From TrEMBL:
It comes from the Eukaryota. The lineage of its organism: Eukaryota, Fungi, Dikarya, Ascomycota, Pezizomycotina. Its cofactor is FAD. One of its GO terms (cellular component) is mitochondrion. It catalyses: L-proline + a quinone = (S)-1-pyrroline-5-carboxylate + a quinol + H(+). The keyword Oxidoreductase applies. Its EC number is 1.5.5.2. Pfam families: Pro_dh. Residues 77-394 form the Proline dehydrogenase domain. Transmembrane segments: none annotated. Keywords: FAD, Flavoprotein, Oxidoreductase, Proline metabolism. This is Proline dehydrogenase.
Amino acid sequence: MLPPHSLLPSRMLIRSLLVAGVTSHPLLLTPGLSILNFLSKPRGPLFNMERNRILHTILKNLLYNHFCAGENAREVKATIQNIKNMGFRGVILTYAKETSGKSSSEKDLSNDESKGVDSETMAWHQGVLQTVRMIGDGDFLALKLTGAGEAVTTALSSGKPLPEQMESALLDVCDEAISRHVNVFLDAEQHHVQPGIDEVALNLMRRYNRGGVAVVFNTYQGYLKSTPRILLDHLHKAREEQFVIGIKLVRGAYMSTEPRHLIQDTKEGTDISYDSIAEGLIQGKYADWTQDEAFNSPKLELFLATHNLPSTLKAQQLQKSRMHAQLPLIRIQYGQLLGMADEVSLTLLQMNREDTSGKRFAATEVYKCLTWGTLNDCIFYLLRRANENKDAVTRTLAEYRALKREVLRRMTNIFSS
Ligand SMILES: Cc1cc2nc3c(=O)[nH]c(=O)nc-3n(C[C@H](O)[C@H](O)[C@H](O)COP(=O)(O)OP(=O)(O)OC[C@H]3O[C@@H](n4cnc5c(N)ncnc54)[C@H](O)[C@@H]3O)c2cc1C
């Protein structure tokens, strides 16, 4: 059987090898991060990525194209097509420019309070509409609500209703998504805004997840001690009010800024929490529900957003064994970020190629999560990805070795034919 990385087109393989070569070696990564940090601050023409075309070309070809989807609709659509050609079910698209980027004084000038128009929310609304119009059937639009600016963030963290402008922007975006057969993720953020985001998500799910399928998904962070309880509460609400609950399960991305006591004490604790939530949902006996009650459990769809191979394989194997035992199945989809954890994505894709059962939910639906925006818009996103690779050094090294083996395999094939 061919290795998972055999699915990578040659150009992507070489670029991935270069990036993994740098990110898996601390001696190369540390100066690389310093350079990226330096370029992320406003600079004169020589070190300005948008004005210095040579710098722009180097960064774009080596780094940006590995992690990001494109600077405009044409580039984004080409990247999406390449990804779908590899066998991915679709993409999750998000816009890098999360706020309007204006200073407070600029905001004051452009906010027309007498008309209740907030310029940050307006810019977010336009950016998100532009994003959803680049995707289609079966893809996901990812929304970061605090990106809509200060007024929205304040409402989310104080438990107040969203400003009317944001309420109507959200409905407009969801209607546009539905008309394009696109699903919507509400991303999970820091704990002080999360109860507000949960409320918004529940309201959208009540409204849009009615036709037996989930259109809107809320995100649940496995690293938070409170998540099993909150998720159980939402499952009860979905059952009582008869809407489909869309669950995107992540481990959680805000460890460095969240109060430590809210988070599982160890990485192993987070892993156990993540896997047991996934297992309970797949088996229809989540927390206080017994197997006998499975019949009454709410209709749910599960999206496992993770780079962790053991978690992914556990869920996939559980689904498979339930399928063979003719037990009820739920829809499970999987997603990883573009440029990261290709071993996970490609292993899942390869399993798909082997599965010929054709049964409902038998196919493994795998997605890549893409961020789009200009090089300048994406620079902080690129920095976060580079830092994440530094934290996951064992995984990055394993990825580098797998890529090197695949390059050697292809070269041997060429020379022996
Ligand atoms: C498609 C996609 C969408 C995402 N959307 C969101 C989102 O909306 N909101 C969000 O918050 N994150 C999101 N993430 C990021 C995610 O939460 C994780 O930070 C990231 O995927 C790394 O976790 P992992 O499951 O891939 O596995 P691993 O790399 O195995 O796990 C790393 C994670 O484990 C946890 N961890 C690490 N050390 C410890 C410790 N000492 N104690 C306790 N826990 C620890 C942290 O959550 C850390 O991120 C998304 C990820 C993907 C792939």
